[in-house]
Design a protein that fits this description.
Blueprint lengths: L2 H59 L6 H4 L5 H33 L3 H28 L3 H25 L4 H22 L13 H32 L2 H34 L5 H28 L1 H8 L7 H9 L2 H16 L5 H4 L2 H14 L4 H27 L7 H25 L5 H22 L6 H10 L1 H9 L15
């Protein structure tokens, strides 16, 4: 496949990812708010513990043995059959282990409701494993139209069609657990319909050793990532209670929605396209720097605005019962640029035969984070959030540094975009403060939220209308490709929009 058709496919994939990402953001936010208000922190805490266990199990079984399908330049039916066979065995074992360990997990967290939740979610573990090959094959084909629509429909059916009515009928945390199982089931059926693949068992074949080696690396990487992303909630549940887990989980989930959706839209497309560019590090570097420039310049000011509006968001959406989560939400919102940059950097390691570095480089960080979380947890969820923020930023620095080394780049290539993002963030912060101050006398969270948010948006648009060059050439080029009319407007405003293919960075 030539670079131009690949670029066109990747661009189309990113556009569909962006469209479905926005829709999923709105849907996910609405469902989370409705369910959190109906169920309260305690029920959400039980679900949060169950999801932490499910995440660990699906990290083991959900895609470990199918991930090689994404990375190989070419695949055969035997590759798919082999991956599916081992994937189903891993899913069955992980699901059975979840079900069997549920009583012990409930004792560990001192909440009997956890047992039934973990046992219910063990079904989702097996179903997710079965769906992994078709899902990854869709991503490999850069068919993000089908992939995004499937994710959108499955979430709507699970959490809105099933979860909300069950919550209204008093099923408590099990409304959330059942919604998760329904979502997984819809994803499995729809993904297989969109990308049918051979399912006849195959336990060994010529390329099996490579697939199993990749599976082992994915497994180790997922374990380390799970520990660094979930131990904070585990320790809160152990040291404090499920109420505190619910508060922290809602804040963490809300703050991570933009990151999960953005990285979920961009990372698979970049990984799949990068697998076809393994022999062309120049273009791989250009694509990576394009993504990082957009994140640093555009996500950084957005993160600061979200953080400053956190108290109004929690009070308006969730109500006074959740206000303890506002401070945690603000801290985690500030982590968005680091979260996104880290997520966009791991494909560089996988596509430059350095996939083992993702978990190896994070092991020392894990050794430092665990005692820090354990010592700070008795002080409350605010202290845990501070440690978690430090962990997120450190992980981003470590992974980005490894990606820079892999591509022969220095940190200097990122400094201009970091400076642009921080400058725009400072301007937006002043605007938010002014807007909130103007609306403070009304004591209405909705008015304060809109005043602060609209003030920041208006100032940012005005500033970029007068000085579009503040975005920088790489971010401008990305916006021009995703939205040609915007590119034309930038050009009319005097912004030197350049072709991404000829952006020169030192290699």
């Amino acid at each position: 496949m030539s670079s131009k058709p690949l670029a066109a496919l990747a661009e189309r994939a990113l556009k569909w990812s962006a469209l479905t990402t926005v829709a999923r953001f709105v849907l996910q936010l609405g469902a989370q708010v409705a369910l959190a208000r109906m169920l309260g922190p305690g029920n959400y805490g039980v679900y949060g513990i169950g999801m932490a266990v499910l995440t660990f199990a699906t990290f083991i079984a959900g895609g470990s043995f199918s991930y090689s399908l994404m990375l190989q330049p070419k695949i055969t039916d035997d590759d798919i059959r082999f991956s599916f066979t081992w994937q189903m065995m891993a899913g069955a074992l992980a699901g059975a282990a979840m079900f069997a360990a549920a009583p012990a997990i409930a004792v560990f967290f001192n909440d009997p409701r956890v047992e039934g939740m973990v046992q219910l979610l063990s079904l989702a573990c097996l179903i997710s494993a079965a769906a992994a090959p078709a899902t990854l094959l869709l991503q490999r084909d850069l068919n993000f139209r089908a992939h995004g629509l499937i994710q959108l429909a499955s979430y709507a059916l699970g959490y809105l069609v099933v979860g909300v009515p069950m919550a209204l009928k008093g099923y408590g945390a099990y409304a959330l657990g059942t919604a998760c199982v329904v979502q997984s089931t819809v994803t499995l059926v729809a993904s297989y319909m969109a990308k049918p693949h051979p399912v006849r068992p195959l336990f060994s074949h010529a390329g099996g050793s490579v697939a199993l080696a990749t599976g082992r690396t994915v497994f180790l990487t997922n374990v380390v990532n799970w520990l660094l992303s979930n131990l904070d909630r585990v320790l809160i549940g152990r040291v404090l209670n499920t109420h505190a887990v619910g508060l922290y989980s809602v804040a963490y989930n809300l703050a991570s929605i933009p990151n999960v959706l953005l990285v979920g839209a961009l990372q698979p497309a970049f990984l799949a396209a990068g697998a076809k560019l393994q022999d062309n590090p120049q273009r791989l570097a250009q694509g990576w720097l394009l993504g990082l420039a957009c994140i640093l310049v555009l996500v950084t000011p957005a993160a600061v605005v979200f953080a400053m509006l956190s108290a109004d968001v929690v009070l308006l959406l969730y109500g006074p019962a959740w206000m303890e989560a506002a401070w945690v939400l603000a801290i985690l919102f500030l982590c968005l640029p680091a979260w996104c940059c880290w997520g966009m950097s791991t494909p560089v390691l996988w596509n430059t035969d350095r996939k083992h570095l993702e978990y190896q480089l994070q092991l020392p960080l894990l050794a430092l984070a665990v005692p820090a979380w354990w010592l700070i947890a008795p002080a409350g969820i605010q202290g845990v959030a501070m440690v978690s923020a430090a962990v997120i930023f450190t992980r981003a620095v470590v992974i980005i540094a490894a990606a820079l080394r892999a591509l022969g780049l220095s940190w200097r290539v990122l400094v201009p975009d970091v400076a642009r993002g921080l400058a725009l963030a400072a301007v937006c912060a002043v605007a938010v403060f002014a807007g909130q101050h103007a609306a403070a006398g009304l004591h209405l969270p909705l008015v304060s939220l809109f005043a602060g948010g609209l003030a920041a948006l208006a100032v940012l648009l005005l500033l970029l209308g007068v000085r579009p060059d503040l975005l920088g050439p790489v971010a401008q080029s990305a916006l021009a490709r995703l939205h040609p009319r915007l590119g034309a407007r930038l050009a009319q405003a005097g912004a030197p929009v350049v072709d991404v293919d000829v952006v020169k960075r030192p290699l």
